[in-house]
Fold this sequence. Notes:
five-stranded mixed beta sheet, 2 iron, 2 sulfur cluster binding, metal-binding
Amino acid sequence: MDVLIKIKDREGVVHELQAPTDMAMNIMELCKAYELPVEGTCGGMAMCASCQCYVLNDVALPEMGDDEEAMLSEAFYVKSNSRLGCQIPITENLEGLELELAPES
Length: 105
């Protein structure tokens, strides 16, 4: 089953992406699959913050882990709604999620 996730890129364009829930992907990998400008330099290990995004609506996300919190405490352009895309697995719960890509560091 796919879920619809909306991601606003750094130019303000909103992309409506169909995200598969059966491939163990995360938001960073989804962005890369759709060729959105997300580096993912660390390969999804919560060590670079190049996949930082802002959560724009109220969708239940998994709790933030210690590694993600530590990385965001050192990253640029962090807001109260910042998350690392690599730490958000794509599940059916994400239907309707709206995100905005953070500026590049």
